[in-house]
Recover the amino acids of this structure.
């Protein structure tokens, strides 16, 4: 979301901007499909198309384009080894294709539409072609849809919107830090708690949605799909157990519980006695997060993020 906030801000300031987008990659290319970068005529740069000398050279070329009057849509293939015509200056293998779209004040409505879709957690399609850029309220079956025949004949579609949602059940200090980190990672973040006037819940300005609920009803608030990630971190063992018992039968991408090994061992034993199978318990991540000896809420948030990212990216293979 921050990317398009910066774009809108520059367009509203009447700045000419180039949007650089990676529309194809292969091998060990540092830039992946959908990587984006903004370069505005006042020198502002945001985002990345892969980094390194390749990115530096393309940014410098973009700055020169902005200094002129002829702001064309460009198509550049970058080969990251041994190609004189398209060489990127990098020695890693692989290649990527980057397209350059000039944007100006007339694109303000498009930027506003994209931001509105992101804020409301709805989806749309960003369409890039050799002649134009546009955004619509359509949806794709997958994240990207593209066809590249040559520099003058190609099309690239990207699903814009939050693909994954993280539900935090519990609004304490760890939840606050996790919310802040996961928003920067591109997740739609929802926080639930059952306590009124909880200071950390009220201080959480990062989450896209917050709601005070009865944990008995938690199952009705969390959908069962492959884009759902759930982290249980209430302030009481009994509530953690209650929430887990309500959600453990649902199919989702990730389900984890914050707590010590001893606490979760006891919880598992109780749930088994209540009839929950070992197969279901094995699907639960607990203690939540990678083991990095984290201590502070911020460190715990990093460990949780690392585990969720690992799960998410393994699923995408």
């Amino acid at each position: 979301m921050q990317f398009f906030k910066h774009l809108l801000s520059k367009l509203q300031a009447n700045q000419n901007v180039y949007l650089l987008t990676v529309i194809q990659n292969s091998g060990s290319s540092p830039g992946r499909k959908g990587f984006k970068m903004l370069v505005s005529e006042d020198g502002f740069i945001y985002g990345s198309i892969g980094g390194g000398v390749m990115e530096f050279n393309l940014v410098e070329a973009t700055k020169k384009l902005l200094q002129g009057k002829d702001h064309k849509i460009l198509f550049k293939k970058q080969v990251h080894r041994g190609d004189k015509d398209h060489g990127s200056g990098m020695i890693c293998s692989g290649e990527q294709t980057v397209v350059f779209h000039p944007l100006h004040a007339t694109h303000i409505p498009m930027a506003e539409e994209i931001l509105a879709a992101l804020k409301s957690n709805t989806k749309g399609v960003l369409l890039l072609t050799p002649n134009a850029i546009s955004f619509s309220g359509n949806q794709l079956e997958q994240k990207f849809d593209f066809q590249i025949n040559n520099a003058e004949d190609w099309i690239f579609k990207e699903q814009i919107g939050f693909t994954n949602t993280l539900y935090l059940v519990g609004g304490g200090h760890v939840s606050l830090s996790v919310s802040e980190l996961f928003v920067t990672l591109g997740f739609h973040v929802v926080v639930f708690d059952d306590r009124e006037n909880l200071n950390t819940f009220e201080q959480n300005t990062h989450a896209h949605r917050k709601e005070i609920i009865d944990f008995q009803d938690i199952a009705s608030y969390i959908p069962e799909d492959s884009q759902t990630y759930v982290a249980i971190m209430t302030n009481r063992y009994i509530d953690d157990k209650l929430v887990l018992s309500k959600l453990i039968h649902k199919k989702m991408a990730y389900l984890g519980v914050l707590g010590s090994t001893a606490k979760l061992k006891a919880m598992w034993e109780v749930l088994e006695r209540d009839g929950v199978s070992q197969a279901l318990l094995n699907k639960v991540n607990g203690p939540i997060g990678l083991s990095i000896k984290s201590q502070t809420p911020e460190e715990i948030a990093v460990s949780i993020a690392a585990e969720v990212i690992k799960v998410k990216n393994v699923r995408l293979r």
Remarks:
- Residues 135 and 250 are 34 Å apart (CA to CA).
- The longest strand covers residues 17-26.
- Residues 84-92 have pLDDT under 50 and may be disordered.
